[in-house]
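Obj.: predict assembly geometry.
Materials: sequence records (below).
Method: joint structure prediction, all chains together.
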Amino acid sequence: MLPVRPTGAAARIAVVDYGASNLVSIDQALTRVGAVVTVVREPDAIGDADAMLVPGVGAAGPAMERLARRGLVDPIRDWIAADRPFLGICLGMQLLFDGSDEDGTTTLGAIPGRTIRLADAPTLPHIGWNQVERLRPHPLFEGIAPDADFYFVHSYAGAPTEDAGATEPIALARTTHGGSFVSAVARGPLIGLQFHPERSGRDGLRLLANYVELVRSGAWPSGEGAAAGAPPAADAAAAV
Amino acid sequence: MLRRRVIPCLDVANGRVVKGTRFVDLVDEGDPPELAERYAAEGADEIVYLDISAAPEGRGTLLDIVERTARRAFLPLTVGGGVRSVDDMRDVLRAGADKVALNTAAVGDPTLLAACARRFGRQAVVVAIDARRNPAGRWDVVVRGGRESTGLDAVAWAERAVELGAGELLVTSIDRDGTRSGFDTDLLRAIADRVGVPVIASGGAGGPDDFVRAVVDGGADAVLAASIFHRRIHSIAAVKEAMAAAGLPVRRVPEAVA
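Observations (raw structure tokens):
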């Protein structure tokens, strides 16, 4: 794999550092696909980033505490409320929901629903590569085979309460480990991934390249007409 | 469906990959990140570094290679060997590892497991169990490369480790390690039947069929090997092909980049 850079201005992504251990690999993977990463430890550092990313592995309680201690909870809520591009990975996705059954913590409340323990799982944690079954087309998965595997490490997952009046469900993909769970959500520029693209080899890099291109183009699927707003395959994405 | 993982293990000393009999007659085999990247391209599902540096000054070098690996391989990385405290584990994770394998230190101080799981989540805590058969037909936990017995029963220790916070178990048969005579599937089965976390089989890989047996007979979720991949006796692709032919779910080997 050769290093690639997108043409035009690079997407600037603020990666929130609250002590999550997968920050390094996310930083390196984003850099690899041409994003400019700013590691954010305090509200002022968010600056004029094009997108915000919250990583995370582990339990919601300590994560919310650390975010609160750094004064980052309200800035993150405000960012999402303003419809600015946001990506939550693993625990970062779970934090988007109202609360977590893992330790009863109240989380960001950006997506209706709760984080619940995986049902009927033969082994927990759910560790390893598994399929991500897409429920609708999305430019995030542009150029990635439908049966591609992604890497998971978790025991809980967010279960969105779908809004009957919405033009399309927020669940973007699901995965089976015993029972099935929602493994990706998308609502305009708000995206959550339960798996780790930064640890999912070439397909993971491709997905991140697609993400970076979406941030650059701003062509988020609106919900009306599904993937009609998909951007043309980016140079960056095609080269991964 | 969750894939059964194939994991190459690299023995690392003072920042270099070494091979030879473990701990003695070490031969320099190259740069760990470079080999990790090669394995990633060949379809490895994860990479394990086992640090066997004798000297403490090897630690800084290890962190450096972990960081360089995270920049190149984009695969899950587990680091074992010499992690003795929450701070050691923090340093290794910060450098870019996803999981840390605790062995001797966890046996000596089981509360370390609980402390690491609390701090980093149990998914980051792998407990490595080196087991040797005893005359009673059970298995003893051994440490220091098998040179020292602990008097602990391996199955009982596995259950206790999971209770304390292990998110995964790396089970090595010291009897089979380096023999290429197949994994100790009785040992694997005895442990897999008693714990709910994934079990990684290690010690004894000889050919692709051994990987199948470790999963089918031993109940392993993942299978680890060192020398057969290192010495290119078998490729990761050949192992996965045999597993797929046996009906086991495996991740496709990525196509070669033109």
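Conclusions so far: Chain B has a mean pLDDT of 91.
To do: check interface contacts against the pulldown list.
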